[in-house]
Amino acid sequence: MKTVFGHSRDGSSVDSMMTPMIDVVFLLLIFFLTTSSFQKLEKQLPTAAATPPDSQPTGANAEQLPPPALTDFNDVVIKLHQRDGGGVSYKLQNQDIASLDELSDRMTAILKVRSDVPIIIDPDRAVEAGEAILVYDLIRRRGSLSVFLVAK
Questions:
Q1: How far apart are CA 130 and CA 75, in angstroms?
Q2: Residue 109 domain-assigned (yes or no)
Q3: Distance between CA 82 and CA 124 in Å, rounded?
Q4: Tens digit of pLDDT per residue, the chain (152 long)?
Q5: Cβ neighbours for 28, distance < 8 A, ≥ 6 positions apart
Q6: What is the CATH number of the domain that holds 95?
Q7: Is 59 a member of any domain?
Q8: How many angstroms separate the CA atoms of 76 and 117, rounded?
Q9: Residues of 3-39 as b/e, b for ≥16 C-beta within 10 angstroms?
Q10: Residues paired with residue 119 on neighbouring β-strands, in sequence order
Q11: Rounded to whole angstroms, how far apart are CA atoms 80 and 57?
Q12: What is the DSSP letter of 89?
C-alpha cells in the first residue's frame, strides 16, 4: 500500500489530520492539571530537628512553658467543659489547662512550630457559644491558618 505525503487529490494535507489529536492532548493536559491535588506532602512537614536551637522563648514564661509535644501533630484538639460552679475548663490534647492565658501561651508555642496545624475546638453542649468564639478568636489572633468548631 502506497502512502502519499503532501497534497492528495481532494486538497487536504497530513497536517490537518494532526489538529484533532493536538486538541485532545491539550484537553487531557487541562483535565489532569485541574483534577490533581496540590497538597503538601507529609514527608515535608516540620520536625524537631528543623527548628534552630536559638529559638527558645525568653522572659518570665520561658521556664513555665514545656515544649510542645511533636509526636502527634495531625491536629490539635481543645475541649471546653462547663464547670459546676460556673466558668469553663480547658483541655489541650487531653491535658488540663488552668486558664485562658495559659491556653494562649501554649497555642503560641505550638503555632511557632507549625502554623498550618488544624486546630479543633470541641465545646460541650453546656458551654455558651460566646466562650467557644472567644477561644476561636484567640487562636486566630495567634496566627493559626485553620481552626474548626465542632457542632453537636
A1: 23
A2: yes
A3: 7
A4: 555 565 556 655 555 678 888 999 999 999 988 887 766 555 554 544 444 444 444 444 444 555 444 445 678 888 988 888 878 889 988 888 888 888 888 888 888 888 788 888 888 888 888 888 888 888 888 888 788 888 77
A5: none
A6: 3.30.420.270
A7: no
A8: 7
A9: eeeeeeeeeeeeeeeeeeeeeeeeeeeeeeeeeeeee
A10: 76, 147
A11: 27
A12: E
Does a structural domain hold residue 103? yes
User: Do the domain assignments include residue 115?
Assistant: yes
Q: What is the per-residue pLDDT for 13?
A: 59
Other Cβ atoms less than 10 A from the Cβ of 98: the count is 9
pLDDT at 36: 79
Place of cell 458551654: 127
What is the CA 42 to chain-centroid distance, rounded?
11
Alpha helices in 36-152 (DSSP H): 100-113, 129-141
Q: How many residues make up the chain in this entry?
A: 152
CA–CA dist 11, 23 (Å, integer):
22
Residue 24 confidence (pLDDT): 92
